[in-house]
From TrEMBL, chains A, B:
Annotated keywords: DNA-binding, Transcription, Transcription regulation
InterPro entries, alphabetized: Homeodomain-like_sf (IPR009057), HTH-type_TetR-like_transc_reg (IPR050109), HTH_TetR (IPR001647), KstR2_TetR_C (IPR041490), Tet_transcr_reg_TetR-rel_C_sf (IPR036271)
Segments forming domain HTH tetR-type: 8-68
Record-given protein name: TetR family transcriptional regulator
Portion annotated as DNA-binding: 31-50
Pfam families: TetR_C_24, TetR_N
Species, as recorded: Streptomyces echinoruber
GO molecular function term, any single one: transcription cis-regulatory region binding
Coiled coil: none
Length: 196, 196
């Protein structure tokens, strides 16, 4: 939760308040009035920063999407064997999800009622497709098992990763980002069964 | 969607309509008026069957919980090596989730605003705990890897399974229940990597 005072509000701090309210109340259930109360500034002050509630949504989900698509541009995601690139992308997805937890949580809850939401869903599908392509390439190399259909395997691995938003709390008491990322990579690639 | 007519309504068919409406509108966002319209019967006819909206919720989530807890009473979940019992339970969780898709979907979306919701969350935690205990026993036997903390591994496997409600559609065109159950068991226990 931001502790920014009225005179220190920036588009960035306003966004972090908005994302928190969207996640608590749902985007549809949030009014500019709710945002104004949560931020402790007037509606006209909010309109000084953004044109609409939907602009805040677009900025918030863009931040999550930029984080995710940014992974695909990183060197280890672009070069080398497909299976290693895939493993790198899975690890980085967990890291980005935790680093941008409220933004990714919002992205995963988008439902498609507005143009911005439909655009976000479309971008999510593009990202899923890019990762599925990587998995397909790894299967073609013979590094990833061929007995589970690629689209289904992608969905299940995404399901495992995305479920982290339901329980991960960055309160310093629980596990760290690296522990979670390691566990996801271990389970996704090698499974629960002990390998001797 | 049920096609039951007014004179054929039973608590069972009313429940299936209610669960669909709860899943579409959210439990909090559903009124008896919404249920009455969706069922095509008067509110007083609904009150002939149930005392309240909350009773419908309780019956619906009970059906999902009974399905899940029932697994633990099945012979292969009770006898044999812990790792095999765990694998059986994981497979059956996917089967029950798909067989009772709308009911489990509702259970997974419960938020805790009412007594019934808090009771359902408590029962879910008990189920998670039972499965975590099984995983702990399998790790103690040396059959399940020891390098991923049991609670974290349980959460990730549950995340994979529960994510199925987000995309599985029993429309006959997509994959079958067995294909999904096989994939989950393969990925959860052996991972994506091809074993040579």
């Amino acid at each position: 939760m931001t502790t920014a005072r009225r005179d220190t509000y920036t588009p960035e701090t306003l966004l972090s308040v908005a994302v928190q309210v969207f996640n608590e109340r749902g985007y549809d259930g949030t009014s500019m009035e709710h945002l104004s109360k949560a931020a402790g500034i007037s509606k006209s002050s909010i309109y000084h920063h953004v044109a609409s509630k939907e602009e805040l949504l677009r900025r918030a989900v863009s931040r999550a999407l930029d984080g995710l698509f940014g992974i695909l541009d990183e060197e280890p995601a672009r070069t080398g064997r497909a299976a290693e690139r895939l493993e790198y992308v899975v690890r980085r997805m967990v890291e980005v999800l935790i680093a941008e937890l409220p933004y990714v949580t919002l992205l995963l809850r988008v439902r498609g009622n507005t143009g911005t939401e439909r655009w976000a869903l479309q971008r999510r599908r593009e990202f899923d497709h890019r990762v599925a392509e990587l998995m397909k390439a790894a299967a073609a190399d013979g590094d990833v098992r061929g007995d589970v259909e690629v689209r289904l395997a992608t969905r299940l691995v995404f399901g495992m990763i995305n479920s982290i938003v339901e329980w991960y709390r960055p309160d310093g008491r629980g596990m760290g980002r690296q522990e979670v990322a390691d566990a996801v990579v271990q389970l996704a690639f090698a499974g629960l069964r002990r390998q001797d």
